[in-house]
Amino acid sequence: MKFLKALIFALLIGGSTVASTIHIIPEPVEIIEKKGVFHFNRTTRILIKGDTTGFATIFKSFVISFNRASGILLTISQKNSKADSLNVLVIELNHDPSIKNNEGYIIEIDKNQIHISAPALAGIFYAIETIKQLLPPEFYSKSNISGKIRWQIPCASILDYPQYSFRGMNLDVSRHFFPVSFIKKYLDILSNYKFNIFHWHLTDSHGWRIEIKQYPKLTSAGAWRAERKGIPMTIAEPTGKDEPATYGGYYSQEEIKDIIQYAKERFITIIPEIEMPGHCTAALVAYPEFNCLNNKIPLLIPCGYPGDLQHNFCVGYDSTYTFLENILNEVMKLFPSNYVHIGGDEVRAGPWLTCPRCRKRMEENGFKTSQQLHAYFTKRIDSFITANNKRTIGWDEILSANISSEAVAMAWHGTEGAVSDLQSGHEIVMSPYHYTYFDFYQSDPDLEEYITYAGLFLDTVYAFNPGSLNITDREKKLIIGGEGSLWTENVETAGRVEYMLLPRLFALSEDLWSGSGNKNYRKFIDKTEDEFNRLDMRHIHYAKSMFNLSISPHFDSATKKIIISINNQVASKYIIRYTLDGKKPDYHSAVYKNPLIIDKSVALQTALFKNEFILGKVNSQRFTIHQGIGSIINIFPDSLDEEISSEYKRLNDGIFGTIEPFDGRWVSFHDSVKTITIDLGKSRIIQNIYVRFMEDQVSDIYLPKKIEFSFSVEGSHFRTFYEVFNKSIPEQPLRHIVSYKQEVLSLNARYIRLRIKNANLNSGDQTKNNFLLDEIVVQ
Asked: Which helix (H) or strand (E) holds 753?
């Protein structure tokens, strides 16, 4: 009611309000900006009205930081007099009906005082976080700069409260271990942007990170693996049986208690994740008696992808449940969270189907599939957690079991899967990977130092709306919030974690706190740039990938021209400039306004400009208009799938693939032999043939064993003019592109044929013998 009166008063006096330029992340429910500023000086005090319980913890960090940077010591008192209304920050617990939940707050700022009111301490805490963003970035200075900065904040009325009660962020500490000091820094960052859940991925195949006193080998053996410095996890081999295991670490229970308290002071609940029944190799190396029988794959702690997901807990062995229940008992006593995360995702059936104990369990229960066995396990673990007055939470695979109605699922597979999850009647945390997986790269893959298997740009994260599904009102109420995930297979250092986290965390905070009706992406870009100044003051790494441009070409088969769109992530705030001659663009280069129509070969370079300065990186791609572009292609054997057949047109569209195999430019084949014939329409003099293949062992993509190039005039008799032979074992394990070019041919031909022989390195499964080709250039 108080805020409503302030709003009416502001509107009535008209001239005292101005257009809002206040930048706060996440965006509050309502901001009414007024003329004037509140100045902090050496007489400014904090006045707490009413009960002061809990306030000291909230203000301690704020007062210390403000004093260090400004030299101003904000004293705290409860004394109330007429003079108290001048140059004072007033705090009180007071429920205003305008505030919809206990995490909300109201801030009234005029020239004489700042007044913060909230129904609960959490609201007071979040109000202080907002005040920090209203202050100059120098608030975070590690030294006194009092004579250089005006310590003031704009006058305004702010009403704020979150749209969702569950605002989470995950961190995987199994793939790479991060020290206690960084976990606290991570919690600081989350709290700054009003996240209230830290999902701590403590265990996985690559390392067990939590001390369990009853089972000390979980950390003495399971927390360590071989050092693979300089070798990406995508190809790092598992720890050898007799190899020194020196890489890793774990958190003692005393350290965890300290971190829990640190999080509590920032109104963050920590949800521990203990992965089961898969993703558990580290635990099984420590206690192999709980592994499935007859698993022929060596039980070694993975250092990367190789050897991962090859072992499960034996669900047919009763002692396994005792082991896991004892672990969970210690975890539940240690963490005050109502939730216990059990993972439950990506469980491979192989170990169970070859294990006599698991087969016996299936027979005893009449199970026909491994999915039923998985559901049996999940229900049994859920029953134990429920009996201990905790709630099971897990990835949405857990919903295949008949689990407690109190259990919560994290919908990570996508929006379609989430609809099915909601129909189960369980509460859901929305975490669809294509909006929330922060290990994905942040701009065009050729511009990113480390890339995974997909991209997740800032504007895509900002478009995430947990409640946008086509569902009933009842089902919408089951969506309690959302969560981002930062998996660390390719994120080795703390600085890299920060880089992958920010600024995408800003976008996710507005998705979950502000809600879709209160977001504006153009304003968000302005706020993000301002926030970069704060991150700089705090020496926090962040990505500037939002300033990188992406290039989206399309081949028009009717005109045989390439149409190129250049896209930005900054809501067109800045100018795009480009060149077509391979030269780096500058202030005098052409301005991009509409898609480019290309009818000759070009080397495009483009960048985002702020005045004469380039923002981000220069993106460059070349496009080739050649004799074979748009020609008829015949493939043998052809695919019966029309969608796959339509992809063949990529082979002569003048568009080259990026380093990302799933960018929509490459064509994948897994036949033992593939014959590709291009019909140029008439005989032509051909000087050069140029093709490119990708090799990526992790994705089962290999160079062909043999490529035979031939030509024909009439289409029936072909003559070989070029052959390529590759070694069976790849020499370069990391993803890369290999080009083959034959020049100065002077061939007279209408037909060009490539006969490609697959390397067939994976016996037994032909779908894992892929070769990728992006363009056949005929010049």
From this structure: strand 747-757
Average pLDDT over residues 534-546: 97
The predicted pLDDT at position 325 comes to 98
Pull the structure tokens for residue 360. Answer: 């016996």
Report which secondary-structure segment, H or E, holds 526.
helix 521-537
- The pLDDT of residue 83: 55
Assess contact for 199 and 169: CB atoms under 8 A: yes
In this predicted structure, the answer to whether residue 352 has a pLDDT above a threshold of 70 is: yes
Closest CA to 398 of 389, 407, 388: 407
3-state SS, residue 431: coil
Q: Which residue reads 């790849």 in tokens?
A: 730
Is the model more confident about 305 or about 27?
Answer: 27
Question: What percent of the chain is predicted at pLDDT more than 90?
Answer: 80
Cα distances (angstroms) measured from residue 102 to each of 57, 95, 347, 469: 18, 9, 39, 26
Closest CA to 443 of 484, 404, 499: 499
Task: Answer for the pair 321, 385: CB distance below 8 angstroms, yes or no.
Answer: no
Q: Which residues of 742-768 are buried (b: 16+ CB within 10 A; e: fewer)?
A: beebebebbbbbbbbbbbbeeeeeeee
Angstrom distance (rounded) from CA 712 to CA 754:
12
Q: Which of 314-323, 500-509, 616-625, 636-645 has the lowest mean pLDDT?
A: 636-645
Q: Around 714, how many Cα atoms within 13 Å sit in the side-chain half-sphere?
A: 2
Task: Read off the pLDDT band of 235 (50, 70, 90).
Answer: confident
pLDDT of residue 2: 52
CA 241 to chain centre: 34
Alpha-carbon gap, residue 401 to 479, rounded angstroms: 20
The beta strand positions in 147-223, using DSSP E, are 152-160, 166-172, 197-201, 203-204, 207-208
Q: How confident is the model at residue 7 (pLDDT cuts 50, 70, 90)?
A: very low
Burial of 623 (0-12, 13-18, 19+ CB in 10 A): buried
Q: Is the peptide bond before 154 cis (omega within 30 degrees of 0)?
A: no
DSSP summary character for residue 715 = S
Q: For the residues 665-691, what does the mean pLDDT come to?
A: 93
Dihedral sign for Cα atoms in the order 342, 343, 345, 351? negative
- Name the pTM for this structure: 0.94
Distances (CA, A) of 655 to 103, 453, 779: 51, 20, 15
Q: Is 421 helix (H, G, I), strand (E, B) or coil?
A: helix
Instruction: Report the side by side order of strands in the sheet with 596-598.
Output: 550-556, 561-567, 596-598
Distance CA 98, CA 100 (A): 6
Confidence grade of residue 16 (pLDDT, cut at 50, 70, 90)? very low
Q: Which of 69-83, 282-296, 396-410 has the lowest mean pLDDT?
A: 69-83
Round to whole Å and give the CA distance between 280 and 302: 10
226 token code pair: 């071989």
pLDDT (average), residues 657-676 = 91
Structure token pair of residue 19: 């257009």
Q: How far is CA 69 from the centre of its chain?
A: 34
Q: E strand or H helix at 591, and its extent?
A: strand 590-591
295, 354 contact by CB (below 8 A): yes
- Amino acid at position 552, single letter: S
Cβ–Cβ contacts within 10 Å for residue 616, how many? 20
CB 706 within 8 A of CB 725: yes
> What is the DSSP secondary-structure string of 435-448?
HHBTTSBSS-GGG-
| pLDDT confidence band for 430 (50 / 70 / 90) | very high
Query: Chain centroid to CA 460: how far?
Result: 11
Nearest-Å Rg of the Cα atoms of the chain is: 30
Packing angle of the helix pair 318-334, 253-264 (nearest 10 deg) = 50
For residues 587-592, average pLDDT:
98
582, with CB counted inside 10 A (0-12, 13-18, 19+), is exposed
Nearest to 487 by CA among 171, 168, 169, 274: 171
Unique residue bearing structure tokens 């020496």: 539
